[in-house]
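dumping these here so i dont lose them again. two proteins, back to back, each one seq then structure tokens. dont judge the mess
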Amino acid sequence: MLRRNWIVILAAVLLGVLVAGAISLAVKPNYKSETKLFVALQDSSSVSELQQGNVFTQARVQSYVETVTTPVVLQPVIDSLGLRETPSSLASRITAVSDAKTVLISISVVDQSPIQAAAIAQAVGSSLIDAVEVLERPARSEVSPVKLSIVTPAVAASQPISPNVRLNVTLGLLLGLVAGVGLVILRSVVDTRVRGEVDLRRVSSAPVLGGISFDNDAAKKPLLTQTAFQSPRAESFRQLRTNLQFAHVSSNSKTILMTSSLPGEGKSTTATNLAIALAQAGQTVALVDADLRRPMVAEYLGLERGAGLTTALVGGADLNELLQPWGRDDLYVLASGQIPPNPSELLGSEKMREILDRLENSFDAVIIDAPPLLPVTDAAVLAQQVGGVVLVVGSQKVRTKDLEKSLAALDMVDADLLGVILNRLPSKGPDAYAYSYYSYDRQDVSGARGKKRQHARVNLDDPNGFEKILKGPERSESRLGAADARSRIAK
């Protein structure tokens, strides 16, 4: 949590330091000046008298300390220095203390002017001497038995005592740190968006099949063939292809359903690019656009969408006539067709089961792009007819509650969840899921792979259908032998 939001914490710390520095510069500096007085008894000649006088003096010193801030002492100071304030306001800037074991009185004065502070401290000390002499003088005597003397004259301070810039900046730093950490904790509690695998683990223990980093160019160039051959994005889909083959190895079905919780998480581009990656590995792949509400596969691949899955479901054309070849590999696309008024009923029909069976018998892999789980029930209906389901989770697009609902919907229909694909991940930071392979420009390769070629029309009912394609003049070498293709179709 701290590594993910370190920028917020750093900003709060810097803000605290700046505010503390600004306050320190805005506050006018105060200077402190101090004077010390010594209290003694007069006319003490013998040792016993000195001892008695010392005890007497220590008992009287605290009374003299309290006298410092009284009008008897301060009013003469105000008059002599011409100060425009009352004794009570002046007393608030004066501090008098004394150690119980000594007969010394310390008087300190705080003022915005160092010279004024020294003048007031010196004047207060002199005024206290005069006041004590008057207060301690006997009625019939002209001399007071107590004598106060200034032993440390007040001097102007060279450095202000406040504001303490170093202390204020340190406090600002600590307060900013506490505020930043508190903000991060509050944000983590309030903001429940799934950002990476750490957030996913709070909801599910499903395996992560792969992660795809967010690419700014993906909106304009969504296809795998439009990026460099060894770019991080291309390598992500190849890694996803490998992990998915291991996750699906125990299933007898070749059909994989791609869905998400909400629209906009990137399931259609993920399904399309996964189908391209599987075809590039030498497999015969059928990509089915089963999102009969917002179909996007045909638009990404530049194919005709008017006839497709819905056409086959209502018996308008045979499946052989609706499969459209794409690219230089064995990738065939079954577009969505016309958008029907009852998608859920069509996808859950027996005709849909027959279409999937025919595709599984003729292709190595069948990838289905299904609608999101939460807005409609189409994906949940289809999940009962496929060999496995892959859930695409868009980083910062879905919240944990929505993800929990999606997993619960799949569990309710006993769907085989193969794993999760984390999409739109940041390229850097604690939630990154990046690859560090060397990349180089392979525009010639990707461009060649992205070009369409004239495929021979595959016939799902013809055992020699793939053999005719493989013997065509456009391919000198084949990744799939004719005998293997014949035996696969025969099965």
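---- next one ----
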Amino acid sequence: MTAFVDQGSGRPLVLIPGIQGRWEWMRPAVDSLALRFRVITFSLLGERKSGASPRGFDAHVDQVDEVLDRAAVDRAIVCGVSYGGLVALRHAAQRPARVDRLVLVSTPGPRWQPNDRVQRYANAPRSSALAFVAGAPGRLSREIAAAVPGRAERLATIAGYASSMVFHPGSARRMAGRVKCLTGQNFLADAKQVAVPTLIVTGEPHLDRVVPVPGTKEYLALIASAEGVTLTHTGHIGVVTRPAAFAELIDRWCSSV
């Protein structure tokens, strides 16, 4: 049984985390969104208090249903971040009656499939994790500097992000398992089935060094009701570096649709 967080009041919004699996990494976004919405979030299958690791990708969709049922919510805004965006997309395609609006944040494109580098990582997660962690400062330092210009504030952001990694660590083995769940999935077909209002959120292309922005923007041509917006001065982790701006952006769009 999945443990979940239920914070704030107003329109229900389900927030699905990225491939690292832990909702705590998104805590700044949860706190900011909870000032405007009733935020319901959880850790992905395989994480502590979330049940066994998934045997297939659709187990994530079932997990969203479970959390909605236990929160006594029939229909919600469903917002997925990165890998969580793929879960949100599939949920909207398969459970349209439960999705009021769909938000995809820095989500891998619909044609994405694991390349050779990703496959090597998935097949040898522990050794590859060292290289991934070692490269993290180079991937994220430029983005954090752009999003948080003040030195003291920037150090606080880095400290908070590092704290999440230390106290709520992601598992290389579980992340590799989630990558393997993506093999053979048809997200193009899922995107074409989505009929609810959809917002595609990206960072700036030169700052997102995790998920290519052009790939995320492909959803704009596939989902009939999709709109796109750029969260400026961010790359892949805008929900952490600019959570207040992210929450305002989501609230403004939901009110206008």
